[in-house]
Amino acid sequence: MSPTSRTTPAVPCPPEEVRRVACVGAGVIGGGWVAHFLARGYEVTAFDPGPDAEVRLRRLVDAAWPALTELGLAPGADRDRLTVTATLAEAVADAQFVQESAPESLELKRDLLAQLDAATPPGVVVASSTSGYPMTDMQTTAADPGRLVVGHPFNPPYLIPLVEVVGGEDTRAEAVAWTSRFYEVAGKSVITMDREVPGFIANRLQEALWREALHMVAAGEASVEDIDASITEGPGLRWAFMGPCLTFALAGGEGGMAHMLDHFGPSLKSPWTRLEAPELDEALRDAMVDGCEREAGARDHAALVAERDRGVIAVLRATGRLPGGQS
Amino acid sequence: MSPTSRTTPAVPCPPEEVRRVACVGAGVIGGGWVAHFLARGYEVTAFDPGPDAEVRLRRLVDAAWPALTELGLAPGADRDRLTVTATLAEAVADAQFVQESAPESLELKRDLLAQLDAATPPGVVVASSTSGYPMTDMQTTAADPGRLVVGHPFNPPYLIPLVEVVGGEDTRAEAVAWTSRFYEVAGKSVITMDREVPGFIANRLQEALWREALHMVAAGEASVEDIDASITEGPGLRWAFMGPCLTFALAGGEGGMAHMLDHFGPSLKSPWTRLEAPELDEALRDAMVDGCEREAGARDHAALVAERDRGVIAVLRATGRLPGGQS
């Protein structure tokens, strides 16, 4: 909490009452946000300084609309409720929520967020789609940094549910809570982080995998096609519905995560990736075991196995593949 | 090729004619292999020195059978075609293919593979389910190392299609080719590696993600539940059918992987994970771009986007989730 935050106005309307959303930056991510908010029935104003911005944006929304229609549009959802403005100020003038999706440059985002703060009605939350910059580093020049929040989506924002929400040191706690609630109302799946970590959670994880993939290609250890196939034919099938921790817990059999860690603990030190493994001390071991048990809840091993199997079969069916189909 | 390999007999029967498979080690992975081979119509002999091995194995097979039945059993598939033997020698005496799935210990696997080589009919391939040990390190004490191959599955082997196949320095090239073909006939999706890399491909990738996850939990940056949700609600939905490289190529918009690398190149150096990023030089950049173009083949950007969207929707449906369903 910054001292100034007490003097700034509260967030104007409850998340449930938001009707007008502004999207600044309308590339792949910003345009995806526009499509999502339109499909959820919001009135959307958009601004992007790029050439042909409106043409590209409407093309992106048109390309996404059949999928969104199939998923079921919210009452009143209409592509005609999109207004592309000539200036940033027009886009945010009446906005009840602002989503910033500019190119990934700290300098650029710092300046843009300060501009947005100056042009947006007092107290209205301005969320950044940054893929990894901490808000603390981006909010430094804004007059009211308290309303600036990270709302990190995944591509495409109109289909991938996850949004990671986290504030910076000067962000008001109410602004973070409001943003998380707003995204939920807008149909997203929200993880609210109580501390800033560069890359947040999902990007740190997928980035670790991505960096190892880049190293493997650079070293001639695997082709791009091998890397992609190794995920889609392997772990990726499980990750669509069961995360890496619970998945590995099942690899421990009835002994679960505890057995898995005790069994694979030694090979955790093997040179299996360029990322060094952490020391698997009691505290970490227990944290993993307890977390998996919390996640499993009432589901015992047999129930989790059955759930995983049903999930893999459903995913294989849904994506037109069935193992053993060939023979 | 080792000098000895010329004097050893050729692989006895074509992959298509294999009827009898031996599985040595019948835990989660070995038992999963047993279930897979039974479902594909093979006669399976299994040996595991553990207490209650047969009870546990039959329980695992029974638990998997409904899923395998739903997927469609091969002609003649029958749980009664499983014979659990009292000794390792009995299990492999008449085997036309042997799958070793012992605990992950280099010493143990080295000794076991030598024993299997001594007890298995000449030339019959013995494949190891090792999660990451190079065969070169495991085949050192076998009389005929030429028939020893890595056949690394994913859990559960009866549902996840991927098997990574790679030989060691002393493995005969024909044995590697035979094994890859055999797994294909047996209904698996095969990646054949032409060089040994500890952890192979998929495990290096998921292990990099896993290690970052362990670091985050150890540092109190995220809970186990957050980590799992960040994947299942985010990147995991895409990875079930589109790998990380092609997925990131789409994040580059119409500019594809080239734009994505040029755009995110700088933040590739951000401290987004504990794994250092490689130097994104021209060679690596081009390798990634060319690989994605090869993978995309005739599919242009619009076609890939439509495919991804259909895939995500299918996966969301299949796993009982639809974004925006709440609002």
Which structural traits does this protein have?
globular, homodimer, alpha/beta, 2 domains
Structure in words:
2 copies of one chain form a homodimer. Chain A contains 13 helices and 8 strands. Chain A has 327 residues and is α/β, with parallel strands linked by helices. In chain A, strands 3-2-1-4-5-6-7-8 form an 8-stranded mixed beta sheet, with helices on both faces. In chain A, strand 5, helix 5 and strand 6 form a beta-alpha-beta unit. In chain A, helix 11 (256-264) packs antiparallel against helix 12. Mean pLDDT of chain A is 89; it is low at 1-8 and 323-327. Chains A and B meet through helix 1, helix 2, helix 7, helix 8 and helix 9 of A and helix 1, helix 2, helix 7, helix 8 and helix 9 of B.
The counted number of beta strands of chain A is 8
Order of helices and strands of chain A: EHEHEHEHEHEEHEHHHHHHH
Beginning-to-end CA distance, first to last residue of chain A: 63 Å
- CATH arch. level architecture of the largest domain in chain A: 3-Layer(aba) Sandwich
List the strand order in the largest sheet of chain A: 3-2-1-4-5-6-7-8
Average of pLDDT of chain A: 89
Give the oligomeric state: homodimer
For the record, the CATH class of the largest domain in chain A is Alpha Beta
Briefly note the CATH topology name of the largest domain in chain A.
Rossmann fold
CATH homologous superfamily heading of the largest domain in chain A: NAD(P)-binding Rossmann-like Domain
Which regions of chain A are unreliable across 5 or more consecutive residues at pLDDT < 50?
A: 1-8, 323-327
**From the alpha-carbon coordinates, what is the Rg of chain A to the nearest angstrom?**
22 Å
Q: Quick one: which chains have the greatest interface?
A: A-B, 138 and 138 residues
From the spread of the alpha carbons, the general shape of chain A counts as globular
Largest sheet of chain A: 8 strands, mixed
Structural class of chain A: alpha/beta
Number of helices of chain A: 13
